[in-house]
Amino acid sequence: MADILKREFIYLWYYFDVQFRQIVFWWAAGILIGSVISVFFKDRIHNVLKRMDGSETWIPGLIMASLLGIASPLCMYGTIPLAASVSAGGIRDSHLAAFMMTSILLNPQLIVYSASLGITVLLVRIVSCFLCGIAAGMLVHVFYGNRPFFDFRGFAEGKSRDTDPDMFMRLLKNIGRNIKATGPMFLLGIFLSALFQRYVPQDLLTQVFAGNEAWGVLMAATIGVPLYACGGGTIPLIRQWLLDGMSIGSAAAFMITGPATKITNLGALKIVFGLRKFVLYLLYVMTFSLVCGMLVNILL
């Protein structure tokens, strides 16, 4: 029994070590770049958003808001107070919907993490998240027009934690917070990936996720709901699934439903949406992820 356990430990350590060596550079680079943007550029990004007072034309405003959401380093509990602040300044709800949607799905740190998945998957992730924000803004514009879509009562913009007067120390503290926040889930993701490599047959994953069929995309979109806890933590899993035969379309679906339905995000979104709009949000996310995943499989 002891020999069996020792053998299994060696196998798992081998898989863990290989994955760690292949991904740790991207994780470290993501931490550094994300912290640099948060410390030196976050205020500039958010000031651009605050200057969008509703005078922008519809489509250009959606494009700008969607891009700003991707560039913003804030988590959802930082994004909503910011959105409440700019909403009071007169920004259109359609533009705000585009910003919040892409902010949920992507950030600069996660873009760098995703580079370890290959340039094709990285581009698919960026473009699909950008279009998801655009589509969300369009739907709010078409179906709600000038009627209010969000309810930000009770939310106030929080104070920045990057307050150290020494810029270098401010950056180091931000890096430390990012490591503390993402490190445990990053290591857990690598460990889960090692478990998949060791104990889940490759043929099974290929049958479930590969090919151009809607079934693989649906399965990926569905498991994204309970499995996604941290962006950095899921990168090792996605990487291994792609190596085992997961289609890029299925990966795209997973990368949309995962962050969009992460439990910590849903709690905040339920407050600003209300029940009916919250259900509409979930239906939109699932529908967009399925359509996006199938289109990606057809095109690629």
Describe this structure in words.
The protein has about 300 residues and is an all-alpha fold. It has one domain (about 1-300). The chain is about 80% helix and about 0% strand. The protein is built from 14 helices and no strands. Helix 3 runs parallel beside helix 5. The longest helix is centred in the N-terminal third of the chain and has 39 residues, at about 1-40. The radius of gyration is 20 Å and the shape is globular.
Q: What does this entry show, briefly?
A:
With 300 residues, the protein is mainly α. The protein has helices at residues 2-40, 42-50, 58-71, 76-88, 93-105, 108-114, 119-144, 167-199, 202-209, 214-227, 231-243, 248-260, 263-273, 275-299. It has one domain (2-299).
Helix-strand sequence: HHHHHHHHHHHHHH
Mean pLDDT figure? 84
- Write down the Rg: 20 Å
Extract low-pLDDT stretches: none
Terminal CA distance: 47 Å
Number of helical elements: 14
Share in helix: over 70%
Shape: globular
The count of domains is 1
Which percent range describes the beta-strand content? under 5%
Biggest sheet record: none
Q: Quickly give the structural class.
A: mainly alpha
Q: What's the count of strands?
A: 0
Please write out the topology:
Layout: H1 2-40, H2 42-50, H3 58-71, H4 76-88, H5 93-105, H6 108-114, H7 119-144, H8 167-199, H9 202-209, H10 214-227, H11 231-243, H12 248-260, H13 263-273, H14 275-299
Summary tags:
14 helices, 0% strand, single chain, mainly alpha, 300 residues, globular
